[in-house]
């Protein structure tokens, strides 16, 4: 360890933002909040990207570590205890000033505060809570705050942070327990999942009491609802009854009574809820209203894409997460034991994972539909949706004028917006291929899979997987070189070699 | 004889265009034969043969009438589409609005969803373009503290469409207790917001423009810190300038602190 004394604010910012950049949670979305009169800040539900860094990624938050001192020694991390790097910390006031001044200049939507583990998880978490308390209560900041929970911190501190933050996250780091043990022995599955469960339960309670203001649902939840499936962790399963006669909302498990008339009394009966701090006077924001997220490192260990995607699905279903992020492994420590595929960060694989993540959250796919035990890796040349479509040609062609929204979503080239527009436009009249183009459908891909009024766009199109594969992949010169003009779909599914140097 | 095309020429302002829509609407001449041409000052127009030109007087009452009718008889969403289109710089917006409104009176509420119709998809595209630009400026505007006591924040932009009102509304909320100025250099207007919540938009005189141009940052400490932050958060192994340009077009960078050399 190298301790820096007398560092300027500028030097601290340089060190502690460079150290935080591998945490890719980038959104400032999920909560819509108007400003409070006289106070600085508001939040936008869709999130706002204030800038884009040289790596093309969105910059929306002041993403910093409280300190890069750390007692843990995780193999992949630049801040690990055994590394010789300059170490420094912010003071809570410095963090508040930076946040407020950057926000006033419209550089950021809010603060993203993570940290190395200084002395102990609780010691660190207390400092984080103190910074957030100052920011919200003394500096009166009403913008977006994303706070990390330190694995192993006590529940009281995790809850305290959750009342100040809009979003919280705990990084899962690796998809399997074995991977975590190998790379981050100080972090156990237990002390990662425990705060996640706590935040999940607290969120549910906050929603039960405050309604949507207490926290809105994830896109995965809405998609499942649209498909008629209810999730195990939803508030619907929390036994909430509305006693309309005397205007009270009671929950048999939680025993919280909210008197709608007075609107300020939240009376805890027999106090057996998950959240212990309802007596605070700043609960109006709700507990972690923008939900929970997490992150996994891709490419540091040998898990398959199918394993990663299955874990993602389980997290959405059982932990009610808003988002799962994937961070392509960057070998900052030049540790040869961690190199799985070549030396470069697996960006293409990360891209495929995000595409699959979108399919889970918006398109109603299940992990088992996209990948399987026998096909555990993504296709290099075809995105997951196209790949699925070509493997299930029995569902096509889809007739545009009669298909349901969910069916339209399965067509390559038709996304959620186009599908919605098609369904709405049908009310005024029949659609043809020209109108589809106006609505944002990518006809280059979709023409193989759709009919309008019973006809395909061109008579010579064949609804046959090898023909379509050749057409979709024809721009990719190295594939054509390898297989010549007779590429078949089956050949491409076997061609998933992620050691290709140029990708 | 072929029916002649009638071209209604009006002032290049929202009231002017709406007055032309009013005149065209009540004329009953037939929407297929009517064009609306807002006259932007200094622009040279080709005179079309076999067309009848009619000059339209700008009338705020007629404009108000048109908007009220759209809001009541079609839908509020249609009214929103028309208002958004009026903010754009598209020379064809008069025609698009007129066609849209004419179809809207026949079809009713569903008009805003009927993207298969040419005029609807065009007005939708204009509305989207205007709001996208407003959204970009909400993201990319950078404020400088140009005065210390009381602290006054100022930002500049050069939008293609007239998005000042949309952008100001956003900051009126989140900066409700700040003095700020948003200076639109394309349309020569600026909005001025005071700490007690009052906000005005002024069309600027040449002198006022000069004055705003001369204001400098009095507190560069945080601008410098922002540049430090911006440089250090990029992951070098993922460097991708093409992606950055795709997400953040070059013309937005003119007044952005992190891309300005000598700020």
Element layout with pairings:
The complex is a heterodimer of chains A (503) and B (263).
Chain A: E1 2-3, H1 9-18, E2 51-52, E3 58-59, E4 61-65, E5 86-87, H2 92-104, E6 110-114, H3 121-138, E7 144-148, H4 155-164, E8 167-169, H5 177-183, H6 189-210, H7 219-226, E9 240-243, E10 248-251, E11 256-259, E12 266-268, E13 292-298, H8 305-318, E14 323-328, H9 347-362, H10 367-370, H11 384-391, E15 398-399, H12 405-408, H13 416-425, H14 433-438, H15 443-446, E16 450-451, H16 465-473, H17 477-483, H18 489-494
Helix pairs in contact in A: 2-3, 3-4, 4-6, 8-9
Chain B: E1 5-11, H1 14-27, E2 34-39, E3 51-55, H2 60-73, H3 76-86, H4 93-107, H5 118-140, E4 144-147, E5 152-157, H6 164-174, E6 179-184, E7 189-193, E8 199-203, H7 206-214, H8 221-232, H9 241-247
Parallel strand pairs in B: 1-2, 1-3, 5-6
Antiparallel strand pairs in B: 4-5, 6-7, 7-8
**Numbering strands along the chain, what is their spatial order in the largest sheet of chain A?**
4-6-7-8-13-14
Q: What is the count of helical runs of chain A?
A: 18
Radius of gyration of chain B: 22 Å
Which chains share the greatest interface?
A: A-B, 55 and 56 residues
Distance between the termini of chain A: 36 Å
Oligomer: heterodimer
Largest β sheet strand count, sense and barrel closure of chain B? 5 strands, mixed
Question: Are there runs of chain B of 5+ residues with pLDDT below 50, and where?
Answer: none
Share of residues in helices of chain A:
25-40%
User: Overall mean pLDDT score of chain A?
Assistant: 85
What share of residues are in beta strands of chain A? 5-15%
Rg over alpha carbons of chain A: 25 Å
* Most strands sheet of chain A: 6 strands, parallel
- The overall number of domains of chain B is 3
Helix content of chain B: 40-55%
Helix/sheet category of chain B: alpha/beta
Helix-strand makeup class of chain A: alpha/beta
| Widest sheet, order of strands of chain B | 4-5-6-7-8
Residue fraction in strands of chain B: 15-25%
């Amino acid at each position: 360890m190298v301790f820096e004394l007398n560092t300027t604010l500028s030097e601290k910012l340089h060190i502690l933002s460079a150290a935080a950049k591998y945490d890719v949670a980038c959104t400032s979305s999920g909560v819509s909040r108007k400003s409070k009169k006289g106070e600085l800040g508001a939040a936008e539900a869709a999130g706002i990207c204030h800038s884009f860094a040289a790596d093309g990624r969105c910059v929306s938050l002041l993403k910093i570590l409280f300190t890069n001192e750390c007692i843990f020694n995780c193999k992949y991390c630049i801040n690990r205890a055994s590394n010789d790097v300059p170490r420094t910390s912010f003071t809570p006031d410095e963090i508040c000033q930076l946040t407020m001044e950057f926000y006033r200049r419209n550089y950021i939507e809010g603060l993203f505060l993570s940290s190395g583990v200084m002395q102990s998880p609780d010691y660190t978490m207390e400092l984080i809570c103190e910074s957030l308390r100052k920011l919200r209560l003394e500096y009166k900041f009403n913008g977006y705050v994303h706070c990390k929970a330190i694995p192993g911190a006590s529940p009281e501190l995790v809850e305290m942070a959750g009342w100040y933050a809009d979003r919280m996250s705990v990084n899962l780091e690796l998809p399997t327990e074995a991977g975590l043990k190998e790379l981050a022995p100080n972090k156990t599955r237990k002390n990662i999942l425990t705060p996640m469960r706590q935040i999940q339960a607290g969120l549910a309670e906050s929603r039960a009491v405050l309604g949507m203001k207490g926290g809105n649902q994830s896109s995965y939840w809405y998609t499942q609802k649209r498909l008629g499936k209810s999730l195990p962790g939803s508030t619907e399963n929390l036994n909430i009854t509305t006693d309309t006669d005397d205007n009270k909302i009671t929950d048999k498990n939680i025993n919280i009574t909210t008197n709608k008339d007075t609107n300020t009394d939240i009376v805890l009966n027999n106090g057996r809820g998950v959240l212990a701090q309802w007596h605070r006077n700043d609960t109006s924001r709700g507990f972690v209203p923008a939900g929970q997220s997490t992150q996994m490192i891709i490419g540091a260990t040998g898990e398959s894409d199918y394993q990663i995607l299955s874990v993602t699905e389980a997290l959405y279903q059982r932990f009610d997460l808003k988002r799962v992020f994937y961070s392509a492994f960057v070998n900052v420590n030049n540790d040869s034991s961690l190199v799985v595929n070549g030396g470069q960060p697996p960006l293409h694989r990360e891209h495929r994972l995000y595409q699959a993540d979108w399919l889970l959250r918006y398109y109603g796919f299940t992990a088992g539909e996209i990948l399987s035990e026998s096909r555990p890796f993504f296709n290099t040349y075809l995105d997951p949706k196209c790949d699925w479509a070509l493997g299930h040609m029995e569902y096509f062609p889809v007739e545009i004028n009669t298909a349901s929204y969910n069916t339209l979503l399965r067509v390559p080239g038709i996304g959620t917006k186009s599908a919605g527009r098609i369904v709405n436009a049908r009310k005024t009249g029949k659609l043809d291929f020209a109108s589809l183009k106006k609505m944002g459908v990518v006809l280059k891909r979709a023409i193989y899979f759709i009919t309008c009024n019973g006809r395909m766009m061109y008579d010579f199109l064949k609804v046959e997987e090898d023909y379509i594969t050749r057409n979709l992949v024809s721009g990719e010169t190295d594939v054509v070189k390898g297989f010549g003009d007779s590429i078949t779909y089956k050949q491409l599914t076997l061609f998933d070699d992620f050691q290709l140097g140029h990708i | 004889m072929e029916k002649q095309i009638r071209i209604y020429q009006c002032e290049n302002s929202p009231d002017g265009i709406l007055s032309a829509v009013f005149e065209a609407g009540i004329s009953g001449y037939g929407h297929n034969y009517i064009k609306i041409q807002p006259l932007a000052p200094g622009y040279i127009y080709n005179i079309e043969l076999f067309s009848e030109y009619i000059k339209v007087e700008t009338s705020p009452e007629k404009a108000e009438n048109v908007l009220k009718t759209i809001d009541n008889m079609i839908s509020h969403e249609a009214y929103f589409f028309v208002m958004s289109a009026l903010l754009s710089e598209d020379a064809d917006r008069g025609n698009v609005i007129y066609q849209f409104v004419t179809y809207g009176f026949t079809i009713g509420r569903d008009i805003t969803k009927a993207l298969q119709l040419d005029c609807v998809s065009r007005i939708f595209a204009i509305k989207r373009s205007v709001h996208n630009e407003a959204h970009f400026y909400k993201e990319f505007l950078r404020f400088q503290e140009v005065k210390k006591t009381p602290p006054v924040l100022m930002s500049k932009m050069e939008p293609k469409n007239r998005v000042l009102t949309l952008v100001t509304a956003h900051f009126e909320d989140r900066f409700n207790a700040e003095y700020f100025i948003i200076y639109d250099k394309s349309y020569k207007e600026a909005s001025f917001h005071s700490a007690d919540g009052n906000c005005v938009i002024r069309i600027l005189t040449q002198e006022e423009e000069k004055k705003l141009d001369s204001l400098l940052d009095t507190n560069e400490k945080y601008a410098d810190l922002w540049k430090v932050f911006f440089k250090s958060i990029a992951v070098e192994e993922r460097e991708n300038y093409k992606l950055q340009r795709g997400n953040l077009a070059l013309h937005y960078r003119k007044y952005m602190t992190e891309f300005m050399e000598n700020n």
